[in-house]
Specification:
Six copies of one chain form a homohexamer. Chain A is α+β, with helices and mostly antiparallel strands and 257 residues long. Chain A has one domain: GHMP Kinase, N-terminal domain (Ribosomal Protein S5, domain 2). Chain A is 32% helix and 28% strand. Chain A has a five-stranded mixed sheet. In chain A, helix 2 packs across helix 4 and helix 4 runs parallel beside helix 6. At the A-B interface, strand 3, helix 1 and strand 5 of A face strand 3, helix 1 and strand 5 of B. Strand 10 of chain B pairs antiparallel with strand 10 of chain C. Chains A, B, C, D, E, F: Its EC number is 2.7.7.56.
Chain lengths: 257, 257, 257, 257, 257, 257
């Protein structure tokens, strides 16, 4: 039995709130138990230099812990003048995950920046960021695109952390469980059931192929559940994902915003 | 008549939520109309080098706009590796304002850092930060101190922005009004009615002594109202401010947390 | 009685030397007692990006303490790779103050940078910088502009520090007085008698409306005296301020340079 | 058939040269085809602050591409004043991988820094770095430790990149293959056959569980081969790994250096 | 007699290996005793801003010590975010030395960056860098230029360190000798026998004109020997230096690459 | 004939003003023609880490161009967050030059920082800095030391720039001459007639041994003249240089300050 009475494969309560702030094209607060991340997606009409003239767009992410999102305060990266290695690693992961389900050609020469700012951190902030950022990204694209031609999001995308604790493989580790785990794995998956990213690390121990498979089984079930949640929350906008839409259908969904 | 139908001296709806996040010793979300700032106060058992051995503590503040708190995205300071001049100026102001109502000797050799992270910015973020940070500071000190001896907060402290718009002096400017104002003034005041800080700037115009006085009159009324709000929100903890408390009273307030 | 026998409202001896160095379009050494600041104004034929194509110019300032301008050496900001918060705050203040008396449209798409480098610091360096920078700015504009159309300086501008010491309000505080003051206020004013900036801070205490008024009275008298000094030093160039000049008059003043 | 006629599971020619430079406690040049990385291990008698007094040591890594190790020059990070996100991510991976096979308690309060400087880059530099760094680490520890008590290396450690190219899964991708791969995976394994790290990324496509398994099969065979190579190159020093050695055996290996 | 039995004027064994790495237009490993520097020359079709449109090219150099090239590890400049003063000084020297023998007009609007990365440091790294960089530069230019018109290298260029040790003037100081020398001098010379740069420093003592002359005599002999070595290594490419070549001759040398 | 009618070997008018500012232990304004440098020496009772406990002191220098000391404004290094390579090179030269005439053991565990801030730059700023810094250093040491034991300055020290212009070797080049010179050399010498530093550079040309000798002849005459000037300006303090002083003599010189 886990500290909060969850079963091995059970997610913490998840809550995704769209339109959490007013100005961003997409703005989502995702809560996974006590972990809370604000994900905002900004659309800009320009692309990095190396894409100019290619007709192709770009999606990137930035990540930050608010200084007192954690149990003891972490120093503010802006004050130190430098992002930590952990931050850099996480924001690169979020960007890669999102780009895997975006048709950058269909996006056109636009950049989307998804900011993931952690309000409260109780484990799993990077995977919560991906799951929440996906919803913010869909909203931002739906807001920006007129609703004709191909919708630039090709599939769902959600992420979960799994790990091997003292009693075996578990899903959605809180901070306390994460600190005690010998193996920690983050998995990003698509709605079609494929893997986008698998990052398993055994700093406090190593793991066998069997253990890897057990972790992947847990991750598949969890990401399926998270994507069902994303679909519910997105309502009719979810239907546009992976489709070429005629104007009429696009207009029908306007009421959803 | 103002764009949101307020009278010249009318504040936007204000809402102060204590204990907004779980881990910080003090955590407050302050909302002034659409402006929303998360203020967390962290207590640490050490002081800057120049105070070591003096028996005296320190209070400092950090401020940041979340990248998409604003109508168009501002670049993340941590990514650029540098805080802007505006950020530096604001966090110095917040720190000075708070220190004016803290008895640093009574605080002992402790540091309190108040982080003001702007979730949504519609004008007046620095003054909202001060008003919210004060409540977070009181909570953090109340949480940390045993409730005997002198309570290190000597008085209330709140701040407001006032300015001269096309139709004369107004209180609590939203972003749109702020952009159109010829004179902008931030005022920080104590519960005793004294001034802590007056910063009036006429970049788009200058102002007379009479106009300065009209602005100060508005600011006095507004900060009185804000401090009444702080008192309501703090409940029995508010009674400790400026007092030397015997144990009994301190214990009585335990139920408030 | 003050440490140097001045009366409460008395300025320290002031000396403004124009053309102190040779290469800058405007170059002024201002001495207020032992405080000495070199102010140079540079005119460049370009503007920051956000002004390109607007037909409008820009005025900005930079400020620095020479490492041993102070009683104990301050570390060189260039060596540390970062300007302090105090420096950033001061140079923003100087820039705002000067822009308040410049007609940026009449300036055209030109940038003027005023460098204020403190040679010796005995209190009041930011206000001395503004008072000296104004003279350097006038010289630089007079040197650059042909003398027809509207002279882009609309009015005089000078600044002073006032504060509340142990014996009440005083003018033009030296370092020793500044350290002992409970309230410190910097005031920037125009020749027409209006306020550009009022920055009053009570870090070591608070202040009442009455005390604020007493400080403003002192500041008005002091800045009037400083502007009379600026006028004397500028000679016939002073007559151009706030005027539209025909060629003849402009030529008459050539001899002054 | 691959561009260099290798079969799908075939490694490029591998060459590990110990004692490549003279001053480092461990110094290895590893060549995997055209990819060449110099790995040096430095032992220092101190630990990061958070380990002081714990009796425990630390192992960390730094990684860099020489500016012209690549087909077109990459700018020097020291000149830009900042390590790229890719560099940060790689050096954190190398450090984690090595720590998984080091008994930090047996190491005592010592720090080992392994520098991986890429002389020539033709794909797989991060995995070559790990495989080479392990040998340098063993040499540095063997050089430093007297040969009694527990040898602080608990097992072998090697890494390989595998990926899915146009014709299916392949091992040890060169730069050209890496650019064309839809899925890229880095696997770090121990001599005991366990996994330390699995990082699979599908930025240009996604991958199924079956494909993941095929990639892991390739990686297991390749890392087994690499570890056999490490064992050959290390000679009698290899026997110390994972053992508690009496003095006699330790002395016997002295001749190997 | 010197520690390695050399005579006062004797160079350490020198070995220059061309085409040491594959991708750079010029790539040379120079070994002077235990000092080993990898010099790569990169040609790019653009110039710094201040040369745009002048028809003239530029040659610049960057220098770095690999962290463990030295007896005790030096921290990585990229990790600290800053190049040391010593690095900056050295790379400016290398750039100046090379430009003295390049006809920047004949080079056209191209930039050549020579990277000098020290693999092992036993004194004389800056002079070895110059001597090796010259060969890499010649190879890069020979590779890039079609072989008609004026060859942009006008003369040979080599450098040596000389110094005054306990027993008088000596040539090509190793680290141990360098640490003990009272005067240290670096001399850069051309094939025509002229001086490009003389940098003599007496931090641990001063030196007379006579001593200066003795050092210059040693430096002349040593650089003549180094330039003979460069000529041998360059083979027929050496004949192009300082000449205007018809196509035929240029083609004849193609076999040398 | 030179642009300002000087003969080839003639110095520009030199003026050394001691006690130019009040707070520094040594403060000198040196003027060489239009070149003006403020040199202040600060004594602190601590040493860099690597000297702690050695009983030995340290002397270091910092150098900066005020932004508008030059004909066109150079950007402020503190604002850019980085010192240029030229600045770093110059301040290292000044430090080495001064240390050559300081007995660091006699100095004891003290640090002296000499700040050389260029007020106006018309060529020769680095050599003027050395010549002026020496006087500031002597004053700072005389002010700090009680006047018994060994005076820690062992000899005079002055520097000059010489170069080869269109009409042959010349002394003390102004900016215009410096830009036109094919060879530029900076020479630092002691009162005893020895060389401390010789830095000759032929970026726009090379130079022969004969030309080097002609330049050194000019430099010897010029530095002798500069040191005579230093001696005059220092008055009786000059007598302490290189001597072990009894208390009586030391006291006699007190009146000089």
């Amino acid at each position: 039995m886990r500290s909060d009475n969850r079963t091995a494969g059970q997610l913490r309560p998840i809550k995704i709130t769209r339109h959490f702030t007013e100005y961003a094209e997409g703005s989502v607060l995702i809560e996974c138990g006590k972990t809370k991340v604000l994900c905002t997606a900004t659309v800009e009409d320009n692309v990095p230099r190396w894409l100019k003239g290619t007709g192709q767009g770009w999606v990137t992410a930035e990540y930050s812990l608010l200084p007192r999102s954690t149990k003891t305060r972490v120093s503010r990266e802006a004050a130190r003048g430098k992002q930590t290695g952990r931050t850099v690693e996480i924001q690169r992961l979020i960007g890669r995950a999102l780009r895997a389900v975006v048709d950058l050609k269909a996006l056109g020469e636009r950049s989307i920046t998804v900011d993931c700012d952690v309000i409260q951190a109780d484990g799993g902030t990077r995977t919560a960021s991906i799951t929440g950022a996906f919803v913010a990204l869909v909203d931002a694209i739906d807001y920006t695109f007129g609703g004709f031609g191909k919708f630039p999001i090709t599939d769902f995308c959600a992420a979960i952390s799994v790990g091997i604790g003292p009693n075996g493989p578990i899903t959605d580790l809180c901070y306390e469980e994460d600190s005690a785990a010998v193996v920690d794995m983050n998995v990003v998956r698509t709605g079609a059931g494929n893997l986008i990213e698998v990052q398993g690390t055994g700093e406090h121990g190593t793991f066998s192929r069997n253990e890897l498979n057990a972790l992947l089984d847990l991750a598949e079930a969890a990401t399926d559940e998270l994507m069902a949640n994303q679909r519910d929350v997105l309502g009719s906008v979810a239907d546009k994902i992976g489709k070429v839409y005629p104007d009429a259908l696009a207009m029908a969904s306007e009421g959803d915003k």
